[in-house]
Amino acid sequence: MEFRKIFDTIPEEFDKYRPRYSKELFDSLIDYAKIGPGKSVLEIGPGTGQATDPILDTGCDYNAIELGENLYAKMHEKYGKRPNFNIVNDDFITHDFGSEKYDMIYSAATIQWIPEDIAFSKTYSLLKEGGTLAMMLVSAEYRSTNEALCDDIQKVYDQYFKPEYEYQHRSFHYDNAPNVLAHGNCIIFKYTYVLYLAKK
């Protein structure tokens, strides 16, 4: 089992328990990037759609690329009948997008699974001039409410979670995006959610 595909082993549980993102975050993102009909969007690693509905509901040309076969199947089950929905089951790192260009590329706690140099350079090459790269994640502090429980959970995790291939990619710096996308970034905080925006 490749570390990047660990959630692909539990698509139903992932869909049920993975946190969603706030309406306010998507309102800000959609307004900033001017997403709607006639706009082309790519979501990297949608999982089972935790950040899909608000963008798909704008009527944009929604596209996604999902590495996990089971997560891909779950996305098809949920959204396959929507006329503006398109998804491929492949690795963003190696996938050939041909001549496709997007008005917005976004990732919800996924882009950090891609080596930083590839993540930023490839998204830059796939964005239209003036396009937006949006990266969102959940920011939370778990230890302080019950440190003993947190330690016990970590012991179980360390004992039983042993992926076949060690995860080599250890760090990802979201705020390096402006070094690649020339127009700087805007960081918006909404409750426990963080949204990083960079425009080409």
Could you characterize what this model shows?
This is Methyltransferase domain-containing protein. One of its GO terms (molecular function) is rRNA (adenine-N6,N6-)-dimethyltransferase activity. Residues 25-144 form the Ribosomal RNA adenine methylase transferase N-terminal domain. Keywords: Methyltransferase, RNA-binding, S-adenosyl-L-methionine, Transferase. The protein has 200 residues and is an alpha/beta fold. It has a single domain (3-199), classed as Vaccinia Virus protein VP39 (Rossmann fold), CATH 3.40.50.150. It has six helices and seven strands. The protein has helices spanning 11-17, 23-33, 53-56, 69-79, 116-126, 147-160; strands spanning 40-44, 61-66, 85-89, 102-108, 127-138, 185-190, 193-199. Strands 3-2-1-4-5-7-6 form a seven-stranded mixed β-sheet. Helix 5 (116-126) links the parallel strand 4 (102-108) and strand 5 (127-138). The chain is globular, with a radius of gyration of 17 Å. The model is unreliable at 184-192 (pLDDT under 50).
Keywords:
single chain; alpha/beta; Rossmann fold; 7-stranded mixed β-sheet; 29% helix; globular
Major sheet summary line: 7 strands, mixed
> Number of domains in the coordinates?
1
Protein structure class:
alpha/beta
Secondary structure: helix percent: 25-40%
Q: H/E order of the elements?
A: HHEHEHEEHEHEE
CATH topology (fold) name: Rossmann fold
The tally of strands reads: 7
Tally of DSSP helical segments = 6
CATH architecture: 3-Layer(aba) Sandwich
Low-confidence stretches: 184-192
Outline: globular
**What is the terminal-to-terminal distance?**
36 Å
Find the CATH superfamily.
Vaccinia Virus protein VP39
GO molecular function, one term: RNA binding
Protein name: Methyltransferase domain-containing protein
InterPro entries: Diverse_substrate_MTase (IPR051052), KsgA/Erm (IPR001737), rRNA_Ade_methylase_Trfase_N (IPR020598), SAM-dependent_MTases_sf (IPR029063)
Pfam families: RrnaAD
